[in-house]
Amino acid sequence: MISSGAPALSAEGLGKRFGDRVAFEDVSFEVAVGEVFGFLGPNGAGKTTTVRTLGTLIHASAGSAAVAGVPLTSNNEAAIRRRIAIMPESPGLYPRLSVAENLQCFADLYEVADPPARIEHALAAVNLSDRATDPCGSLSKGLRQRVALARALLSDPEVLFLDEPTAGLDPVAAREVNELISGLGHGGVTIFLTTHRLEEAERLCDRVAILNRTIRTVGRPSELRDRLFARALTVRTASPLSNPDDTFDGLPAVIRWRQEADGSYLLNVSDTTIAAPAITRALVGAGADLLSLGEAYHSLEDVYFALIDEDVEVRQP
Ligand SMILES: Nc1ncnc2c1ncn2[C@@H]1O[C@H](COP(=O)(O)OP(=O)(O)OP(=O)(O)O)[C@@H](O)[C@H]1O
Ligand SMILES: [Mg+2]
Fold first, then answer.
1. Whole-model pTM?
2. Domains in the chain, ordered, with CATH?
3. Residue ID of nearest Cα to ligand 1 atom 1
4. To test ligand 1's pocket by mutation, which of 27, 49, 50, 197 has the most ligand atoms within 8 angstroms of CB?
5. Going by CA atoms, what residue is nearest to atom 13 of ligand 1?
6. Which residue from 16, 17, 21 has its CB within 8 A of the most atoms of ligand 1, so it is best to mutate?
7. What's the gap between Cα 269 and its chain centre?
């Protein structure tokens, strides 16, 4: 058990290089017990290598970490492995064996206590009890991902690493896997999730890190939005304002404004609670027919592109 108050996962200046190639470096973060933590980044950013390092499959080149409350050292690898599970990028199941037989093999490998009970529990957790006798090779990709998740649950892990669990799944299958992950998170399992689906991260994760060899940012999706983007209000009117400068210039808490291609007005504001009523009054005063006034929304995708585009610009000579 992770001692109370201690994080489930922590990394401090963690790095991994293969020869001259740096997979990731100077990675520091903490994940609280029961948190669903998203790890996002472009192809080759170092996500899988981070999972493999924290999962004791490869050794770090620099820095320190603790996994499930246990310091990541060569002496502690077995102790860490007992407390975690990894669902890798490709499920790695035996296609000719049935779902239950596959789980039996892995239960033996992981030396879990009371395999029949654990297998039954894992199958029920991923809603696959009725497919136990189907050969894995005959299952759809979505169902195979669920078997892989069941396999990861066999050892009743405290920390679960999921490396792109919904890659290649259709929206319905992806949502089913997401619901399973969300349920596990609510059940107190700490989840470290890598994904390229930004809306999935936004929905599932308490906090996310954006990695591009180094960590570019860590926080709750809403915090990242606020950190990166100025607050803005979108105003729509029935017809264009005859004199928008007179209407918007000098209003309290309005920093600047511009008209968008669709005819709406985007106003950068320092405080929406001051700006919104002032804008409404100004529009009424100008005789405009206000259709809507709302906060401009930035998604996690906007945050991601803002950070990763910056990196691309930096890389250019
Ligand atoms: N065993 C290895 N030997 C040499 N280089 C490696 C090895 N494993 C990973 N790398 C390199 O480390 C970098 C990070 O790879 P990694 O697989 O961690 O990226 P990723 O973020 O998981 O990408 P993707 O989104 O494509 O899965 C890449 O440049 C990769 O080529
Ligand atoms: Mg990867």
1. 0.85
2. 9-226 (3.40.50.300), 230-295 (3.30.70.100)
3. 18
4. 49
5. 23
6. 21
7. 29
Locate the ligand 1 atom nearest the alpha carbon of residue 164 and give its number.
27
What are the pLDDT digits (tens) for 278-292?
999 999 999 999 999
Whole-number Å distance, alpha carbon 191 to ligand 1 midpoint, is 21
* Residues at CB less than 6 angstroms from ligand 1: 18, 21, 23, 41, 43-49
User: Closest ligand to 59 CA?
Assistant: 1
How confident is the model at residue 91, as a pLDDT?
A: 80
pLDDT reported for residue 134: 96
As given in the structure block, the two tokens for residue 165 are 């669990």
- Split the chain (317 residues) into runs of 10 and give each run's mean pLDDT: 82 97 97 95 95 97 97 95 92 93 93 92 91 95 91 93 91 88 89 92 94 95 82 94 94 94 93 95 95 89 85 58
Dihedral sign, Cα of residue 288, residue 292, residue 294, residue 300: negative
User: CA-CA distance, 193 to 198, in Å (whole number)?
Assistant: 12
Please report which ligand is nearest the Cα atom of 52. 1
Q: Which amino acid is located at 190 in the chain?
A: T
**92-115: b (≥16 Cβ within 10 Å) or e:** ebeeeebbbbbbbebbeebebeeb
**How far from the centroid of its chain's Cα atoms is residue 107's Cα?**
28
pLDDT of residue 315: 56
Answer for the pair 36, 205: CB distance below 8 angstroms, yes or no: yes
